[in-house]
Design brief:
mainly beta, 11% helix, 4-stranded antiparallel sheet, single chain, 5-stranded antiparallel sheet, 299 residues
């Protein structure tokens, strides 16, 4: 009689069969999870009705901050660490020129008087002011993230776990004032044309309106890692610094929160060019998007 081998899992009874079924189920779950994350990674950005976007600049690894100086020159940062970060200008023909290098995670840019200020997020570093053809150190902060200016003074926020600060710097007197401390992963700061000041705490998923008396108002909550803030006549612009499914939002002058772009990856700076026309840095895909309103909202 020929010898017939019995499969080992059959010889071992129902326990082995159960383990095999569990392994197959786990493999299926893992494949589904990988498919889900792959979908998030590849899913294209979608614009809300009445808005459109296009890619203005591509192939900019770790793109973060955008600003235009008083002459209209566009500055862009690459948020690389270990003194590999840089600031470059982008000409109309697409050519790039590095104007500052050797930075550690340059994460914020703001136009100040006749120049541009850049922050560094990785540790204790000075804020640098490029003006008049020279680079000047202003003051040092720890993990400085967002910077904003009303044209006269500079507002700065630190990305620290529970002990971040919101600061005000006067370039005329060189005085640094602490407006708020004890912040949880402070990311964005914005000053409005009317002087109102807002800041985002990424660790709490919220945006607050700063009050001189100390009772800051939560303006928007439940956000997915709010990062950059910008305020203009249209309202308060907010980006989410999440790896997947980040959004560009606008809290308009009527208090309505609009979602203008979805499925962004690590959205960063919003730079207004004209009403209904702006740039958005999308760090997760290494590019800068040009966003336009194609139809005015109904009244």
């Amino acid at each position: 009689m020929p010898f017939t081998s019995t499969p080992s899992f059959a010889r071992r009874g129902p326990t082995a069969r159960k383990l095999r079924l569990v392994a197959l189920a786990f493999a299926g779950t893992l494949a589904g999870a990988l498919g889900f994350f792959s979908w998030q990674h590849l899913f294209p950005v979608t614009a809300a009705e009445g808005w459109s976007y296009s890619v203005l600049v591509d192939a900019v690894p770790s793109v973060s901050a955008l600003v235009r100086d008083t002459q209209g020159v566009l500055y862009i940062t690459q948020e690389l660490k270990d003194e590999r970060g840089s600031v470059f200008t982008l000409a109309a023909d697409g050519s790039r020129k590095v104007v500052i290098d050797g930075l550690s995670k340059p994460d914020g840019l703001a136009a100040l008087l006749d120049g541009v200020v850049v922050s560094q997020e990785a540790g204790d570093h000075p804020l640098l002011w490029l003006h008049g053809g020279k680079l000047e150190a202003l003051f040092s902060g720890t993990n400085v993230e967002g910077v904003a200016s009303d044209g006269r003074v500079l507002f700065v926020i630190e990305d620290r776990a529970g002990d971040g600060r919101l600061l005000r710097f006067d370039p005329q007197t060189r005085e640094v004032s602490v407006l708020r401390d004890g912040l949880s992963a402070g990311e964005g700061v914005a000053v409005c044309p009317n002087g109102e000041l807002f800041y985002a705490e990424k660790g709490k998923g919220s945006v607050k309106r700063w009050r001189a008396g100390g009772l800051d108002e939560v303006l928007v909550g439940g956000l997915n890692a709010p990062g950059f803030l910008m305020c203009d006549d249209e309202g308060l612009w907010i980006t989410e610094d999440a790896t997947h499914q980040a959004r560009l939002l606008l809290l308009d002058s009527r208090g309505s929160l609009q979602v203008l772009l979805r499925h962004l990856r690590s959205a960063q700076t919003v730079l207004p060019l004209a009403p209904g026309h702006l740039l958005v840095a999308e760090q997760g895909r290494g590019r800068v998007l040009e966003v336009r309103r194609v139809r005015k909202p109904s009244s």
